[in-house]
Specification:
A hairpin with a 4-residue loop joins β28 and β29. Strands 9-8-11-10-12-13-14 form a 7-stranded mixed beta sheet, with helices on both faces. Strands 20, 25, 26, 27, 28, 29 and 30 form a 7-stranded antiparallel beta sheet that branches. About 2% of the residues have low confidence. It contains 24 helices and 30 strands. By secondary structure, it is an alpha/beta fold. The longest helix is centred in the middle third of the chain and has 18 residues. α14 crosses α15. The protein has 4 domains: 235 residues, Rossmann fold; 162 residues, Rossmann fold (3-Layer(aba) Sandwich), CATH 3.40.50; 63 residues, ATP-grasp fold, A domain (Dna Ligase, domain 1); 116 residues, 2-Layer Sandwich (D-amino Acid Aminotransferase, Chain A, domain 1), CATH 3.30.470.
Length: 681
């Protein structure tokens, strides 16, 4: 359900219900930030709060509030929400805890949350168990604690499911303008995706940062990503935690390879949401895209007055998607004129200290370096701490850098190798000069890599294939039944004959040699010794069967000429959709852990491209003159599995082919399993 959150998030009037220090803090914060609308405290006994006259009930308010902070106990919260909804209020933040998040402790949390939702009706509520939000654009803070932000005219929005992390983020001193900081609480009604979509609609918001503990509304999150792409506003996400569903025991290798983290990464990549691995990188990336937009490439030029710093920059790029392209002839000629014959010209560049504080010379050198096919320039400069030193001599870097950026048309960032060596006041001076302050080499290069990925990410894709209703573990089909089910959708399988143990002798007498014998009833047949390949006689096969002692057997065609073995797997991850895993298969699956995950549906081109990212890609391409695998046949097999999953999406939990033997002409599924869930009534 899509609700109008504009009145709640951008209010003209605010009511505060409750009398504790939390409620008093909300009033104080709004007053301090210069909120220019009325603030109405509500308390049945107190005459005033924060210097403002109170009213005893919400019905006594002089008007209908756009936003209300409800800071009373959970039972009174439900009553207050009902009264506000009946008045036509714009929405509320529910501060109280003790709802669904406390069901295990209280036993009544689910029931109270249901009552809360019924009381709200169509009125938006954020929470419960949440701090609310800060609107730094309008000075509207439904926020019961300290914060470290200031009013801004435009900036980025950040949403987190942790109120404490939200407080910490407001204390950042990186020169990042925060337009909104919001928490989602337990998302009883309004979720992270819905809040994010509402914030992106504000034209003063340039980008969205998300700290995600769990994605509750998969389709809503997909809609958020689509809308962000339409608005040209990047989303940068830090995903924490792993879902219990994806950690559940499974009989396939796929589940252990995919897991929740792989599913989350695949989902975010599919939707064009940039994933980062730390809060500092998220903040630096948001700052970079706010000030420069998504970078058109990952090509950068670095300048420092120290060879040590140049080496640190070069080393930090190893393993990252950041390129320091060699200086071209035009750059070298202009740099030689600016720096003379004693400087070794390279990228990263050590321009030496002899031109320090010579603004014309520094400008000429920086301009020469920036006049190239690069998306961003980096000027390494750590500023002195001003409580013990003077940073006046460092003004030249800002002046020369700004002039060079204007002359070349290339954005330039001033990068401090240590975050503490670029203060918030200096960061503001850098931004005012038209430059970008970046803090920390590792964080800055990660931000550049992420920003370039945002620019190159797909412009759009088909809607995600949604899992069906919640199911239990269900049943695992036999190998023979699994292969037959997949073959019906186009998967190529070996010729095989399934027999009960008592009929094995007759089946072996008519089997072509060489052959494969498999015993049924084993979760992992290879580890149990229930697969024997290359049998060339009936006697060998009977000896193998005696060792297996299985109730039934597959007598199967031996597939020769394999170039490589792959795993194709799909798991149903309720949090992220159907996760497709492509991996090194057979006995290499667990040894190499060589896998890539995607979210269904996928296209033929995506499959073929993904195969090139695996470590066994050289085998598929024809290693050392060997024949290549038929990648189109592999893609056919993957698409056939996808067709099966699509047709059985309501119930299928896992599908795995392992191995898929890849030959120069075919791709044959020599082992497979399917797990079907059972729908709960």
């Amino acid at each position: 359900m899509s609700r109008d959150l504009s009145r709640l998030l951008r209010p003209k009037s605010i009511a505060v219900v409750g009398g504790g220090t939390w409620c008093a803090s909300v009033i104080e914060q709004c007053q301090r930030m210069g909120f220019d609308g009325p603030i109405w405290p509500v308390h049945p006994k107190r005459a005033e709060m924060g210097g403002l006259t109170t009213v005893p009930t919400v019905e006594d308010l002089p008007g209908v509030p756009d936003a209300t902070f409800i800071g009373v106990n959970r039972d009174l919260t439900i009553d207050t929400v009902a009264r506000l909804s009946g008045m036509g209020a714009g929405g509320a933040v529910c501060f109280a805890s003790g709802f669904r998040e406390a069901q295990a402790e209280t036993g009544d949390g689910d029931a109270l949350q249901a009552q809360l939702l019924a009381a709200a009706g169509g009125m938006p509520i954020i929470g419960p168990n949440c701090y609310g939000f800060i609107n730094y654009l309008d000075g509207a803070l439904l926020w019961p604690d300290q914060h470290g932000g200031v009013r801004v005219d435009r900036g980025v929005a950040i949403i987190t499911q942790s109120s404490n992390i939200a407080i910490n983020l407001t204390m950042q001193a990186r020169g990042l303008p925060l337009a909104y900081v919001a928490t989602a609480g337990n998302q009883a009604q309004v979720g992270l995706a819905e809040i994010g979509a509402a914030l992106l609609e504000d034209p003063r918001v340039t980008a969205l940062g998300l700290h995600i503990e769990g994605i509750g509304d998969l389709r809503g999150f997909e809609a958020l990503a689509v809308r962000a792409r339409e608005l040209g506003k990047p989303i940068v996400a830090l995903k924490a935690g792993k879902s219990e569903q994806a950690r559940a025991a499974a009989v396939s290798h796929t589940a252990s390879l995919a897991g929740s983290d792989a599913g989350a990464r695949a989902l975010l990549a599919r939707l064009g949401v940039a994933q980062v691995n730390s809060l500092p990188v998220m903040l630096e990336t948001l700052k970079l895209v706010h000030l420069a937009g998504a970078l058109p490439s990952n090509r950068v030029v670095s300048m420092s007055c120290s060879g040590g710093e140049a080496s640190l920059m070069a080393d930090a790029a190893v393993g990252r998607g950041v390129i320091f392209p060699p200086l071209d002839a035009t750059q070298k000629t202009a740099l030689r004129l600016a720096l003379g014959p004693m400087v070794a010209l390279a990228n990263p560049l050590d321009y030496h200290t002899f031109i320090w504080d010579d603004v014309p010379a520094m400008t000429a050198a920086f301009t020469a370096a920036l006049n190239a096919d690069v998306a961003l320039g980096l000027l390494v400069a750590d500023f002195p701490r001003t409580d013990r030193c003077s940073d006046a001599a460092w003004d030249c870097t800002i002046t020369a850098g700004a002039a060079a950026s204007r002359a070349s048309g290339t954005p330039l960032a001033l990068l401090a190798t240590l975050p503490e060596n670029l203060s918030e006041s200096v960061a503001k001076r850098i931004v005012d000069a038209g430059l970008i302050p970046l803090l920390g080499i590792e964080e800055a290069l990660s931000a550049i890599e992420t920003s370039a990925w945002l620019h190159a990410s797909p412009a759009g894709c088909d809607p995600i294939l949604m899992p069906g209703t919640e199911t239990s573990a269900g049943t695992v089909l036999s190998e023979a039944d699994s292969k037959a089910a997949l073959a019906a959708y186009g998967v190529s399988i070996p010729h095989a004959h399934r027999v009960e143990a008592e009929g094995l002798a007759e089946a072996l007498a008519n089997a072509p040699m060489p052959m494969v014998l498999k015993g049924e009833g084993f979760a992992h047949k290879t580890e149990a010794g229930a697969v024997v390949i290359g049998l060339t006689s009936v006697a060998q096969a009977q000896e193998a069967a005696a060792r297996m002692n299985a109730p039934a057997y597959l007598v199967e065609e031996m597939i020769a000429g394999g170039v490589a073995e792959l795993l194709i797997g799909v798991t149903c991850d309720p949090a992220h959709g159907f996760v497709l895993t492509l991996a090194a298969g057979g006995t290499l699956t667990e040894v190499m852990q060589d896998s890539t995950s995607l979210i269904l549906p996928v296209t033929r081109d995506e499959i073929v491209q993904t195969l090139t990212t695996l470590r066994i890609a050289p085998l598929l391409a024809g290693y050392r003159g060997g024949p290549p695998a038929n990648t189109q046949a592999i893609a056919d097999a993957v698409l056939a599995v996808q067709d099966y999953v699509h047709a059985h999406a309501a119930h299928v939990q896992e599908v795995e082919i392992n191995p898929l033997i890849c030959t120069p002409t075919r791709a044959i599924a020599v082992d497979a399993l399917i797990r079907i869930g059972v729908t709960h009534d």
